[in-house]
């Protein structure tokens, strides 16, 4: 018997830590920008909103709970989208989880595996070589060739324990096929509620590219390792983001778009908002009669309580 076709859950990654204000005036930085763009993206069809935080003075990434407090509560009041927080900043697992412990999101991310991140290529992909702020010049300059994202087995294990103790759903970000096996190793030792939520983060220089054959391999490997009780999300970073989302929707996975992952709609044209990105992928999906999930449906499928 054929499987019933599920609606696709759209995540909108509103702002991130690896693209910067010099790349686009439409990248949300201030609390007002975060609130407006998030609520508009939810209205456009995003069931999940994924967040990083930025210092409103210059747009640099921060994990300061005081900054998170300026925009997350108003967003929660103004829309019913699922709140997903990045927990990627900090040297220790406790550092990375610190803001989430204060803000209590429905979902928190756990990056699976260490890798070269190639931030310099992020700037190249967005067509930017001159920057407004010193922190941007540092982030994308020669020192970026020395940066390795440090996600040790201990840190992954500790983050899983923290979020299990706090009853916060985890989204496991996997940048390559080997990360799926790292995740399997950790989950064999843990009793996590189902479904397992796996995010394919593809297209960085140190990970797997966003080509369809790679995405299919990631999907088939995930399903072989974790069975049917898994919710997969596909997103590609850089200019191939929208194409990767379309591939994901056609493969039957959930998807992610947003200003965190890519700022350019096509060469020479910037996306003007997160909502514009959600609207574009919806148009593509509608051409193939692919339905989108509401926040209520997303919560039901992910095992989250109704607010």
Mean pLDDT: 94
Topology as a string of helices (H) and strands (E): EHEEEHEHEEHHEHEHEHEHEEEHH
| CATH first level | Alpha Beta
User: How many distinct beta strands?
Assistant: 14
CATH superfamily grouping: Aldolase class I
- Which stretches are low in confidence, meaning pLDDT under 50 for 5 or more residues running? none
Largest sheet: 8 strands, parallel, barrel
What percentage of residues falls in helices of 4 or more residues?
A: 40-55%
CATH topology: TIM Barrel
Going across the biggest sheet, name each strand in turn: 1-2-5-6-9-10-11-12
What does this structure look like?
By secondary structure, the chain is of the alpha/beta class. It has a single domain (10-302), classed as TIM Barrel (Alpha-Beta Barrel), CATH 3.20.20.70. It contains eleven helices and 14 strands. The longest helix is centred in the last third of the chain and has 15 residues, at 212-226. The protein is globular and about 45 Å long. The strands form four sheets. An eight-stranded parallel β-barrel has the order 1-2-5-6-9-10-11-12, surrounded by seven helices. Strand 3 and strand 4 (61-62) form a beta hairpin. It has helices at residues 31-44, 65-78, 93-103, 119-125, 134-140, 153-166, 177-187, 212-226, 241-251, 274-287, 295-302; strands spanning 10-13, 48-51, 53-54, 61-62, 82-85, 107-112, 115-116, 148-149, 169-174, 196-202, 230-236, 254-257, 264-266, 269-270.
How are the secondary structure elements laid out?
Layout: E1 10-13, H1 31-44, E2 48-51, E3 53-54, E4 61-62, H2 65-78, E5 82-85, H3 93-103, E6 107-112, E7 115-116, H4 119-125, H5 134-140, E8 148-149, H6 153-166, E9 169-174, H7 177-187, E10 196-202, H8 212-226, E11 230-236, H9 241-251, E12 254-257, E13 264-266, E14 269-270, H10 274-287, H11 295-302
Parallel strand pairs: 1-2, 1-12, 2-5, 5-6, 6-9, 9-10, 10-11, 11-12
Antiparallel strand pairs: 3-4, 7-8, 13-14
Helix pairs in contact: 1-2, 1-10, 2-3, 3-6, 7-8, 9-10
């Amino acid at each position: 018997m054929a499987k019933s076709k599920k609606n696709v859950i759209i995540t909108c990654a509103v702002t991130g830590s690896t693209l910067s204000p010099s790349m686009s005036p439409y990248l949300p930085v201030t609390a007002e920008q975060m609130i407006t763009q998030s609520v508009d993206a939810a209205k456009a069809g995003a069931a999940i909103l994924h967040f990083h935080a930025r210092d409103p003075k210059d747009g640099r990434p921060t994990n300061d709970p005081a900054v998170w407090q300026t925009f997350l509560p108003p967003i929660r009041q103004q829309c019913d989208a699922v709140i997903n927080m990045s927990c990627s900043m900090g040297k220790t697992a406790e550092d990375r989880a610190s803001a989430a412990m204060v803000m209590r999101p429905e979902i928190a991310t756990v990056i699976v595996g260490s890798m070269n991140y190639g931030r310099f290529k992020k700037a190249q992909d967005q067509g930017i070589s001159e920057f407004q702020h010193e922190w941007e010049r540092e982030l994308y300059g020669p020192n970026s060739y020395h940066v390795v994202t440090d996600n040790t087995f201990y840190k992954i294990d500790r983050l899983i324990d923290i979020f299990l103790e706090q009853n916060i759903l985890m989204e496991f970000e996997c940048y390559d096929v080997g990360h799926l096996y790292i995740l399997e190793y950790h989950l064999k030792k843990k009793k996590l509620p189902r479904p397992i939520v796996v995010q394919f983060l593809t297209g960085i220089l140190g990970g797997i590219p966003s080509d369809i054959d790679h995405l299919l391999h990631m999907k088939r490997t995930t399903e072989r390792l974790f069975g049917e009780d898994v919710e997969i999300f596909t997103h590609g970073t850089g200019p191939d983001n929208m194409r990767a989302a379309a591939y994901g929707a056609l493969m039957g996975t959930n998807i992610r778009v947003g200003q965190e992952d890519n700022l350019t709609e096509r060469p020479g044209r910037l996306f003007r908002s997160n909502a514009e990105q959600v609207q574009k992928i919806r148009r593509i999906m509608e051409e193939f009669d692919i339905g989108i999930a509401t926040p209520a449906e997303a919560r039901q499928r992910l095992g989250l309580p109704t607010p």
